Amino acid sequence: MVADAENGHAVEPGVVASEADLAAEIDLLGLIGCAELFAFETLARDAALATTLEAKVALGAIACREYEHFAMVSGRLIEIGVDPEDVLGVYVPILTDFHRKAAPRDLLEGLMEAYVGHGISADFGREISRYVDPGTREFVDQLLTDDDRSQYIVSHIRKSLRDDPGAAGRLALWGRRLMGEALAQAQRVAADRPDLARIVLGGSGGGESGAGLAEFTNILARLTAAHSERMQNLGLAP
Amino acid sequence: MVADAENGHAVEPGVVASEADLAAEIDLLGLIGCAELFAFETLARDAALATTLEAKVALGAIACREYEHFAMVSGRLIEIGVDPEDVLGVYVPILTDFHRKAAPRDLLEGLMEAYVGHGISADFGREISRYVDPGTREFVDQLLTDDDRSQYIVSHIRKSLRDDPGAAGRLALWGRRLMGEALAQAQRVAADRPDLARIVLGGSGGGESGAGLAEFTNILARLTAAHSERMQNLGLAP
Question: Per residue in A127-164, is it b (16+ CB within 10 Å) or e — as a string?
């Protein structure tokens, strides 16, 4: 976490700096906005997969809240003075690819995707938000903290596992697959969005890459630990 | 349209009468609420099928408005003093069956289901609402009138047909199939919900069934005419 004086980029969390940081901040908002839109689609699909009215109603309400979050991100991008379409559009292929490669076979796998998959992308967003200005960081934190959603989904999955303990092995494997796909897509984001990668890694691949790599390793360790915690919350092997 | 004095049911539009009418009104609200919930699921699925951000955003917004409508119906049922779960739950198998039998193969067929399918169920709801009390009729009318939604979907389908005129034949057939499935499910609703059938048909199958049958034929004619108009709006053979 050293300041990249040559390019004028702040790489220390919480320090605001240049226009390149604004570009990274816009990229971050784009990524989070698109993740919220896809969380809406995922949860609405889960509502359709549900066979009880109670689950349909609960999942539908959570889905619509994700859509509201998406709209809030769009609004913030407009405030900054950029067109949400330009910013968000670039992530659509990445997230579409994720959903295609990790298509659930039933409601349980769908709920895992909503909880585990969206959990990973929220952690990823929060990690990056440590490197942008405090106002955006706070906005992102508030947006990504949504305990009600998690609580409903966790209790639904745990109940299903009590009724059918044999599903635990399949779901544990599914969780690992979701984590693998999420990391693959995160790498793709880093490759596609150099501004975003630079504020985290501290330099566009020059001499500072040692410090950046160490920090990146820490981020990966935290993402993995949070994922394991979520799997344990579900009563599944991480 | 004669008053069924023996059972105390009003069968003339706009005339409020007995507790059996309240049962029919609750059935109607249940049917409409469930149709709104399924419209949410249909439109959210269409948002996921869309490949442009613009369409995802527009369809997601319409989907969430349908969910709001569903919540409004739930609220009204609670006001009347009944549990929405009890009332709406009975329609879940009927609407699930409709969606299973009329599963779209692509976004265009999905949008047809949202416009044509939901259009038929809205017409059906409005027809029945003529037989319940004015307050509920007005509530139902306001809920089911949603020109913004239709306009976006119609213009999307028309644009797609301009780009690919060859799809018109397939979509015209699909529209006819949607109408057929909707009528089959309407018959099932009439069979499953006798209170609802009685206020429309004027009697539970006794001597008054002649007058009821004539009125039912008129309703069918109006539903068919409205369906043809929607197909023509899309530039498709009805």
Answer: bbbbbbbeebbebbeebbebeebbebbbebbeebbeee
Contact A60 B41 (CB under 8 A): yes
Tell me how far apart the alpha carbons of residues A219 and B69 are, in angstroms, rounded to a whole number: 43
- Return all residues near B214 (Cβ < 8 A) that are at least 6 apart: none
Residue B90's CB is within 10 A of a number of other CB atoms, namely 16
Taking CB atoms and an 8 Å limit, are A53 and B96 in contact across chains?
Answer: no
Distance separating alpha carbons of residues A168 and A171, to the nearest angstrom: 5
Walk along chain B (238 residues) and give the pLDDT tens digit of each residue. 334 444 444 444 444 457 778 888 999 999 999 999 999 999 999 999 998 899 999 999 999 999 999 999 999 999 999 999 999 988 888 888 888 888 899 999 999 999 998 899 899 899 889 888 899 999 999 898 866 778 999 999 999 999 999 999 999 999 999 999 888 888 888 888 888 888 777 654 444 444 477 787 888 899 999 999 999 999 998 8
**Cβ pairs A/B, distance under 8 A:** 77
Beta strand segments in B68-200, E = none
CB contact under 8 A, B53 and A85: yes
Residue in B121, B176, B37 with CA at minimum distance from that of residue A63: B37
Contacting residues of B for A93, CB less than 8 Å apart: none
Is any Cβ of chain B less than 8 angstroms from the Cβ of A216? no
Of A16, A27, A24, nearest to A203 by C-alpha is A24
Sign, Cα dihedral of A125, A130, A131, A137: positive
Which residues of chain B lie closer than 8 angstroms to A48, CB-CB?
A: 41, 44-45, 99
Q: Is B184 on the interface with A (CB under 8 A)?
A: no
Global pTM reads 0.85
B56 touches A at CB < 8 Å: yes
pLDDT per residue over B48-87, tens digit each? Answer: 999 889 999 999 999 999 999 999 999 999 999 999 999 9
- ipTM summary value: 0.82
Q: Chain B closest CA to A94's CA: distance in Å?
A: 12
